[in-house]
Amino acid sequence: MEWEVVIGLEIHAQLATKSKIFSGSSTAFGAEPNTQASLVDLGLPGVLPVFNKEALNMAVQFGCAIDAEIGKVSVFDRKNYFYPDSPKGYQTTQLHHPIVGMGHIDITLEDGPDKGVTKRINVTRAHLEEDAGKSLHEDFQGMSGIDLNRAGTPLIEIVSEPEMRNAKEAVAYFKKMHSIVTYLGICDGDLSQGSMRCDCNVSLRPKGQEEFGTRTEIKNVNSFRFVEQAINCEIERQRDILEDGGSIVQETRLYDPNKNETRSMRSKEVANDYRYFPCPDLLPVVIDDDYIEAIRSHLPELPDQKKQRFMDDHKLSEYDASVLTASRELAAYFETVAEKCGDYKLATNWVMGELSAAMNKSDVSIQACPISAEVLGAMLLRLKDETINGKGAKTLFQSLWEKQSDDVDALIESLGIKQVQDSGAIESIVDEVLANNQAQVDNYVAAAEDKRGKMLGFFVGQVMKASKGSANPGMVNSVLKTKLDEKC
Amino acid sequence: MQNLTLAQISKGLEAGEFTSVEITQHYLDRIKQLDQGENGLNSFITVNEELALAEAKAADERRAAGNATAWTGVPIAHKDLLCTDGTLTTCGSKILSNFVPPYDATIVENFKKEGAVCLGKTNMDEFAMGSSNENSYFGAVKNPWDLERVPGGSSGGSAAAVAARLVPAATATDTGGSIRQPAAFTGLTGLKPTYGRCSRWGMVAYASSLDQAGPIAQTAEDAAMMLNVMASFDEKDSTSIEQPVPDYTATLNDDIKGKVIGLPKEYFPENLDPEMASVVRSAIAEFEKLGCTIKEISLPNTGLGIPAYYVVAPAECSANLSRMDGVRFGVRCEDPKDLEDLYKRSRGEGFGAEVKRRIMVGTYALSTGFYDAYYVKAQKIRRLIKNDFVAAFNDVDFIMSPTTPTPAFKTGEKTGDPVEMYMEDVFTIALNLAGLPGMSIPAGKVNNLPVGLQIIGNYWNEAGMLNMAHQFQTATDFHKEAPAGIDSNR
Amino acid sequence: MALDRSDIPNIADLARLAIAENDIPQYQQELSNILELVEQMNAVNTDDVQPLAHPTDAVQRLRADEVTETNQREKYMQCAPAKEEGLFLVPKVIE
To answer: Which contiguous run of DSSP H or E holds residue B449?
Structure first.
């Protein structure tokens, strides 16, 4: 039977506030256990929450960025469950009245048969909630240790419609959300520290059937690659079961990247009844149109807008524009380079070409790139003003990459790659080359006119070699042509 | 000395008639004599003798240094639901029987700033759930008017302690009547303010949208003094309302002539004990003498107050008490075999029967399939009840009624039937649902037991209620009577 | 609504309350009585009534995003029943 895959994602993004959603504790990552857990975060008897203004701001920014309805009255609810990393015995979240309602984003697939195709994915809702603490399973006399530093870190949970049909679309969606929240600056996007986590809801149904199949939820997948792998192996698993005539059990599963398989989570097996109800310690959050419009009008440029601008104003191809805007850091790097050298085309070629290749080869991210955008821009400026030629630029790039110096002009001097622009100097090199290659000169003269163009290349190469690559190739060309034509 | 009111103690300290250390020692001695031991009242869970004397000494020094306030050196006690930094705070529960909070409730802090002296923490029904103070892990509290009777609840410890003059006044909390009913049972003046008037920070939550702290004191004047300290806007409490706090003592002597008092017919039902009715009606007649007019009104949804309350309060408490799990504080069960066992036994063994009943009722009312029928329905009833009061206050300045259907009942009399016990709060509970302020003042006696008159004010009109109560107390002596057997010096 | 005997252990489980087998009939009776009391609410039609979750009409106040808390671990963990290396200890958590 032919199966259709149905995927919906729930993405948790930690908001980049300084303090927690309901307390004045720091949200900084990596502190000693429980040193950033205040009375409120510990859920001691008698403590009360007060909502962080910036968390609200950030959530509304997100809502505006995905063109969503904004909840003018949003309400915090309690989701009741017992777990040691949930100190109050409930999580404060938003069920019936979320801050962000229905919105949408467009995704573009990077590879595969649908490469370059754009698809709209609707976002059901996004709501504010508090993160849980962490259970550490190292052995403490057979017990687990609880660290509540993370408890109370603000999250937005972004829930998609079940509109993705394969793992590649799911990854593209996750990446796009990552780029939106990082462009907005509302999340640091650091997947390795858990700043963004993804729950994948996966089900299969016979192609053409409208009704959804039973779904499973893969919890807490924390890398783009794992999202693709986890979904694909869950699709496999479900397909095998269904094709053997079995049925899928609705459950929560965990992805094990080492074994590349998903397994049922024992702790979530017991069907829970979360008994949501409005949190009586918090009042309805009420915002008005003025507030929303003020946020909307101050939104930074988002990836889609930037991409369009690169295409419209700077004539980048759609592909180049997509790649260069996929991450905020890369886009910012690129724009600095382009502005510094004043040539978007040149900047595109170098960032997409030499720079990308070098980063790939050394496996470094744009944040860790040894050449700053300013320096690369300065280098390209020298290429553009013909202080150096293309060959010299490659040599220079290598030196910059190796961090020999950040001073482009000084390096040009010390590397001796300054382009020779002096026509007298070039003429004398040309004369020398012609004198040393009489046989080739004779061949040139004897050749038919339409063949001479090709033969000129040999002399150019010799002159460049004699100038140690520093002669201006354009000038070399024209001097050679003049001198040779005189001999004809 | 023990019959001194707060106001008198404050003046006495100021005049140098006695020191804070002397008056503090006096009360500590009385507590030792009357509260502790087998036949004691058991109104205190913790008596902090050393700390109280240290505070008293500091207060005397502060006075000597010339920066005393009206409160410096005045002794009080806190209900054991209010967190006190470094002092045991049990909420009357086994599960918190070892809990020493690392912080002060805002109310506690407010008193500290003024230089008041805290004698200790008063007994209460476990987590403020009860109307007789029989639900305390630390034992029942006796009513000083009749040791075989209950002092009311849940602030029974505060009420008994003040009634027996073991302390001149005490803080209390009221979720369905827990200030007013014990005040009525012990011949005291108790006031539950408008929801949001006193900070809930550090007050262990029973039902967050109903809980409100207030004073239990001997007189309206003392209650006003207490409220001056207790009331504050607190940024740490999202439900604290940013309203200026007036000086509640400043308007006590305002003229109350022309005030319109509404008597809701639902609060004087046909089956009301005729003696109760007669005491309450004669108190109201006193207000007429003072120039007030009386108007019959109706609060038609009154009868739904208890049913709605027993959804809202249990629902909220079922979540509020989830943090009592034996993980980060409090008592953990012995040798838990796994995590579930830890939770279930710590809670099962740590909570008393009434707390477990309410948690279970709330858990059920919020569970899938029942949420709309119970929780949402109760919230709708809550709106109807509030609307009744809002409409009534268009026509009247105050509403008056009996505080309780009967005077103090006997210990053990109602413990067999939870629902019967719940009916105790029939006249007090609706105010909590509506968030309105209410107080109880002594109005006379039935069978030699005190009877309370309930004064209900409009939102934020605590000053008006205290004014009415003070004028009544200026014209009458009910509030001056102390329980006979206890007061050996009378 | 009268509860079944079997409802009691389910509710107790959800609420993480260990209750003795012997006590189940009493809980069943008492909880049923309370629910019966509660159901008096059904006497009024509330179809057109908006639920009221808070007694006042106030709206949520917002806190400035500032770090106001300092590390108080020693003090805050003083009352922990079991702790080690700055962590609260619980029987092994199984995922």
So the answer is: strand B449-457
Residues B162 and B183: their CA atoms lie apart, in Å, by 9
B239 part of contact set with chain C, CB < 8 Å: yes
A264 in reach of chain C (CB within 8 A): no
Domains of chain A: 3-291 (no CATH), 301-415 (no CATH), 423-487 (1.10.10.410)
Tell me the per-residue pLDDT of B374-396, one tens digit each, with 9 for 90 and over: 999 999 999 999 999 999 999 99
**Cβ of residue B277 closer than 8 Å to a chain C Cβ:** no
Cβ contact, residue pair A32, C86, below 8 Å = yes
The reply to whether residue B344 touches residue C16, judged by beta carbons under 8 angstroms, is yes
Question: Å from C22 to nearest chain B CA?
Answer: 14
Instruction: Give one word for B447, left, alpha or beta, with left for phi > 0 and alpha for psi -120 to 50.
Output: left
Domain boundaries along the sequence of chain B? 1-490
Q: In a structure prediction context, what are the per-residue pLDDT tens digits for chain A, which is 488 residues long?
A: 899 999 999 999 999 999 999 999 999 999 999 999 999 999 999 999 999 999 999 999 999 999 999 999 999 999 999 999 999 999 999 999 999 999 999 998 877 777 778 899 999 999 999 999 999 987 777 899 999 999 999 999 999 999 999 999 999 999 999 999 999 999 999 999 999 999 999 999 999 999 999 999 999 999 999 999 999 999 999 999 999 999 999 999 999 999 999 999 865 555 689 999 999 999 999 999 999 999 999 999 999 999 999 999 999 998 899 889 988 999 999 999 999 999 999 999 999 999 999 999 999 989 899 999 999 999 999 999 888 988 889 999 999 999 888 899 999 988 888 887 788 888 888 888 888 988 888 888 888 888 887 888 888 888 888 887 888 888 888 888 888 888 77
Asked if the ipTM is above 0.90, the reply is yes
Judging contacts by C-beta atoms under 8 Å, the chain A residues touching residue C69 are: 19, 23-26, 36, 38
A271 to chain C, any CB pair closer than 8 A? The answer is: no
Q: Give chain C's domains with CATH numbers.
A: 1-42 (1.10.20.60)
Mutate to test the interface with A, among C60, C72, C79 (most CBs of A within 10 A): C60
Closest-CA residue to C51 (of B312, B320, B388, B195): B312
* B368: chain A residues, CB-CB within 8 Å: 273, 275
CA dihedral for A127, A132, A137, A143, sign (positive or negative):
negative
* Interchain proximity A48–B319, CB inside 8 Å: no
- Give the number of other CB atoms < 10 A from CB of residue B232: 17
Residue A192, both tokens: 């390795």
Question: B1-490 adopts what CATH topology?
Answer: Amidase signature (AS) enzymes (3.90.1300)
Q: How many CB pairs under 8 A join A and B?
A: 100
Distance from C44 to chain A by nearest Cα, in Å? Answer: 23
Q: CB-based contact (8 Å) between B87 and chain A?
A: no
Cα–Cα distances in angstroms (integers) from residue B20 to residues B8, B15, B26, B86, B223, in the given order: 13, 12, 10, 22, 20
Residue B289 CA: distances (Å) to CA of B329, B397, B403: 56, 17, 21
User: Which run of H or of E encompasses A230?
Assistant: helix A224-243
Across the interface, do C88 and A148 touch by the CB < 8 Å criterion? yes
Point out the residue among A48, A82, A281 whose CB comes nearest to the CB of B322.
Answer: A82
3-class state of residue A370 by DSSP: coil
- Is C17 within 8 Å of B367 when comparing Cβ atoms? no
Percent of chain B exceeding pLDDT 70 equals 98
